[in-house]
Amino acid sequence: MAVLEKRRKTGLGDHIDLSQTECALHYLAPAILDQSVNGRTIQRAGNDDPSIFPHGVFPADGNDSWLAVACSDESWPQLADLLGLQDLSDANQTARREQRSIIDEQLSAWSSVRDSTAAAEELQGLGVAAYPVHDAAGTNSDPQLAHRQHQIQVPQSHAGTMWTHSCRTKMSRTPSRPKPRRAVFRRRQF
Predict the structure, then answer these.
(1) Closest to 69 measured CA to CA, from 85, 58, 78, 83
(2) CATH of the domain at 79
(3) Which segments in the chain show pLDDT lower than 70?
(4) pTM, whole model, 2 decimals?
């Protein structure tokens, strides 16, 4: 806040030296408190989510092809119908988690015979959050990532241009661009 106040008064910015660990530690507060008070150690969740089920990555048709799915309570009845699980269409999240093996098996069977993009579009049409999982090459051809300018070309002093990730946050008046790199193997570089 002091830097913002200084900028408001003088028009000049300043340097902030901040530890990323201390800055992000508050995200672990529930786990630290649970360990301190109850003696429970947090377990790895993988692709699971405590508030959404099913939530995970499922196989799609093709070599190393995957589909990410996150199904809310609101969209569950449509997904249950699609998977032939009408008897579970009224199940709340707790009841669905108790049937995890059946639901995951049905969702995997359904997704594994479909193209990941087509499967994602079909699920999105039902209101289910889904998207194909890309490998590194696939990110370059993804229309959403292209629209967000996820990959940008930057000049290199020794090799023309190269592709790199852009800044994840987009600001209308202060677009972020990586700074050009120094020439490789300049004198006294080491």
Answers:
(1) 58
(2) 3.30.1540.10
(3) 177-190
(4) 0.69
